[in-house]
């Protein structure tokens, strides 16, 4: 499985997890708020910040209903189309945000929901395209994205393996092999017991592609666990304040939580190691204290044949261990040994 390059980072097995701070639409259509989200993502240590690029009238009809979670977090009497219009950013906003992210030295990404948005992001020279879970069966959009010949991050929420396969066939039909799959459960928030993180390995085995997680659970437990299972990308919604209006705010991390997640992921990566079972330098010191040596139970005079009753195993472990017992028991002493003394081979015949 080859690594995939996004910006200056290689994504794949054995590489550090690529952490995407999902600003999404938590800017509420405000360019200045969007810039503050970029600042927060950079401060937290994320590798990338991601928005959503769309034209509301391109993706929803006038009578399209909201998802249940959206009716709970926004005006339930407002149609989905009107909600989406309030969450749009202008073309010039995306240009400013892309430039600002570059200045802040964080990768700028955005999910594209229509062909015009794909073209805009191509003009902004994004290093990769993100496809949201809801668009995995939007085959014309997938084909258009694949034609741009840039790596694709494909979320797989609400989909079966067959639907993932169909999407990949469209993408690969355009000659694009650089695809990263994201396991995802599309609920806001997603319930931990429904996350099925073992599907990360299922996707990796089925398609031989790098696999990560787009996470919508509350807290940071699930994304950190996913990294331990080999997720090479983590995407997580964040906001400046969960009390702000908007459909995704409540299921998002706040800046300090995002920072905590990044730190926890990096610590997990350090802890994973290379899989070789070895004694660490720190353990070498502890081993001398915690292990046991062969010790005389009684005073043993010179010329005595040592019996099992005369010895035992006690700390410290700086002397002969249990594997050397056959060299001591049954042998004759060449010097006297005091009770409690660690028995050295030099005192045996």
Description:
- The longest helix has 18 residues, at 255-272.
- α1 (31-44) packs parallel to α5, α1 runs parallel beside α11 (255-272) and α7 (139-146) packs across α8 (161-173).
- β9 (211-215), α10 and β10 form a beta-alpha-beta unit.
- The protein has helices at 31-44, 56-59, 68-73, 80-86, 91-103, 115-123, 139-146, 161-173, 199-207, 221-228, 255-272, 281-290, 325-328; strands at residues 4-6, 9-11, 18-24, 48-53, 107-112, 129-131, 152-155, 179-184, 211-215, 233-237, 293-296, 311-314.
- The strands form 3 sheets. An 8-stranded parallel beta sheet has the order 5-4-3-10-9-8-7-6. Strands 1-2 form a two-stranded antiparallel sheet.
- With 349 residues, it is an alpha/beta fold.
- The chain is elongated and about 100 Å long.
- The protein has 2 domains: 4-272, Aldolase class I (TIM Barrel), CATH 3.20.20.70; 281-347, Antifreeze-like/N-acetylneuraminic acid synthase C-terminal domain (Type Iii Antifreeze Protein Isoform Hplc 12, Alpha-Beta Complex).
- Helices cover 35% and strands 16% of the residues.
Give the key terms:
349 residues; alpha/beta; 2 domains; two-stranded antiparallel sheet; 13 helices
Question: Gist?
Answer:
The protein is α/β, with parallel strands linked by helices and about 350 residues long. It contains 13 helices and twelve strands.
Chain-averaged pLDDT: 95
Query: CATH topology of the largest domain, anyone?
Result: TIM Barrel
Largest sheet: 8 strands, parallel
Q: Please indicate the percent range of residues in DSSP E strands (runs of 2 or more).
A: 15-25%
Known CATH architecture of the largest domain: Alpha-Beta Barrel
Cα Rg: 30 Å
Topology, number of strands? 12
Q: What proportion of the residues is helical, as a percent range?
A: 25-40%
**Structural class from helices and strands?**
alpha/beta
Assign the CATH superfamily of the largest domain: Aldolase class I
Order of helices and strands: EEEHEHHHHEHEHEHEHEHEHHEEH
Distance between the termini: 60 Å
- Unreliable spans are none
Shape: elongated
